[in-house]
Amino acid sequence: MAALVFKLGALVLKQLAKPLGARFEKWVMNHPQARRGVISAAQVVHRWEVYITRGAEGKEGKAFVGAMTEEKSVELASKLASEGFVLGVGTLIVLFEYDRNRRKEIEKKRKEDAERQAILDQASRERERLRTENVEQQELIAELMGRVERLEALVTGAQQQQQQQQKKKPAMWGGFLGPRALDP
């Protein structure tokens, strides 16, 4: 929404630049100091124009560039003031838009960096949690293996004890029906 408002504002300012430029031109031409400055700037522009034209035509050497008449000088100065104002307004609009876009990009990059850092932090916490869980599981496995070994030892001991007790039991009816009678 803000971009739309800015674009509309820039468009309105561009449209107002020409009439404002004409009003600025009148002010400059009526203000004595500004008028002198603009007229001397117009004389400089006239000299540059003559030098550029001569260079484009292939003419070499120094040439005398006379001062413009007061009427032509005032006309060029007023045009220069008006166009300078319009150019200044356009330049300000472009610079403002550039700065606005740059700030938006910086903010976007900052948000992306924050999101990336949050993801990295979460991944780091998850890795640490998994590492801790893995260590706990390894300890639990070691404890369970110890228990299994103890149980196997107890079972083996109980089996041996049972076998010894069975060997010591007297056989029924002379050993014909006892467990040893069936052993080969």
From TrEMBL:
GO cellular component, as recorded: mitochondrion
Coiled-coil regions listed: none
Gene Ontology biological-process entries: regulation of lipid metabolic process
Domain of life: Eukaryota
Entry keyword annotation includes Magnesium: no
Stretches the record annotates as Disordered: 159-184
Keywords: Coiled coil, Signal
Signal peptide as annotated in the record: 1-17
InterPro entries the record matches: OPA3-like
Pfam families, alphabetized: OPA3
Protein family membership: Belongs to the OPA3 family.
PANTHER family: OPTIC ATROPHY 3 PROTEIN, OPTIC ATROPHY 3 PROTEIN OPA3
Protein name (database record): OPA3-like protein
Source organism per UniProt: Gonium pectorale
Lineage, opening ranks: Eukaryota, Viridiplantae, Chlorophyta, core chlorophytes, Chlorophyceae
